[in-house]
Amino acid sequence: MTTWWAARAVVDGIVRDSVVLEAADGVLTRVEPDAEMPWHARTLHGAVLPGTVNAHSHAFHRVLRGRTHRGRDSFWSWRDQMYAAASVLDPETYRLLACAVFAEMLQAGYTAVGDFHYLHHAPGGAAYANPNEMSHALAAAAEDAGIRLVLLDTLYLAGGPGVAPDATQVRFSDGAAEAWAERTAALSASGLVTHGLAVHSVRAVPPEAIAVAAQVARDRGVPLHGHVSEQPRENDESLTAYGLTPVEVLRDAGALGSDFTAVHATHLTESDVHALGGSHVCVCATTERDLADGIGPIPALRDAGAALCLGSDSHAVIDPFEESRAIEMDERLGSRRRGTFTGEELLATMTTGGSAALGLPDAGLAVGAPADFIEVDTSAVRLAGHDAANAIDALVYAATASDVRTVVVAGVERVRDGAHASIDTARELDRTIRQVMDS
Q1: Span 375-399, mean pLDDT?
Q2: Among the options 195, 225, 227, 264, which is catalytic?
Q3: Residues in CB range of 207: below 8 A, 6 or more apart
Q4: Which of 262, 284, 301, 374 is the residue whose CA sits 20 to 30 A from 251?
Q5: Does 313 participate in catalysis according to the annotation?
Q6: Which domains does the chain have, with CATH numbers?
Q7: pTM score over 0.70
């Protein structure tokens, strides 16, 4: 058993003082506000929050940060650079890179991540001796770093509606939905790693294959994710090929519902918004602005009943506070109104929204919940003078990843004093990114 005493912690959505937290076997066994400090407790002087959840990640995209911003271009030219990076990764380099990226996420305050994984095979498309070798590399990276991973094994079959995959995309493809289902059936949960499924997009997966994926996900009782209407071109191609928007294709294939997460959902019709009302929507605001994707109808989706979560996606930024408040800040720019989302709503996108989308136990400080939480340094310069009576607003709108001091996952301190317990994160990122980009 391990015991912490938090000067302040968010319990049931309310900031409470003097909170004792105890964990055994990775689960919280005691959460007691207004408690005396046990003599053996580790003291957390800042504000303790439930662990934050990164519901959409492509770990290898991290190599592109700071390298793709010169000149005027678009999502599609950025994608060419991303594919170039994807073409050189092998299981060992991917394990090393992903471990460093997961360590960076931990230091930022993420305790769980859903990685949207489609680098399945060797360059050229040949299967490794173990067809799930790349998946195992990601799983090993998560275990080494100490982050919860939901590996969203992604179905990817085409380069566009009716278009064969190109020389890079061929390593993403299993050739048919049935072959993908057979390969993914061999994946199993262990330690910090569980599994879900994904369809890359309506561009990369035809409707009949989406229907197969949706049925497989239901049969296995796992979440299904998919990129949805990130770019207008995606909508145009879907309308040309199928006479339907991507949301309508997903609807007719039986994919939508409480176990489905639409990633981005940026360019939607009014009927699309209503169709997504019973699903999750993952907003990746820092990636969407980096790639000039646009601002999605997030308030309308919320009002229609969609459950919101967030993801760092391409990792142009890895910071759950920035990711969350960007939902409100981008809406302010688009609508010229403030206060569309409350601080409590934004905190939920960082925590419970992501755990629900990934099929994880509820992210919260409660007996029986996973012992996943973070400590934010409220004495840091960004939070100096904050109003304790409105601490959630202060944390959501003022804190950054740099203010995270302690990160606990499954009852183990993975980050202490802002540094990873066993990984020199900056050095490993530098080494592995240069190795990939110089290949």
Answers
A1: 91
A2: 264
A3: 242, 249, 252, 253
A4: 284
A5: yes
A6: 2-50+364-425 (2.30.40.10), 52-357 (3.20.20.140)
A7: yes
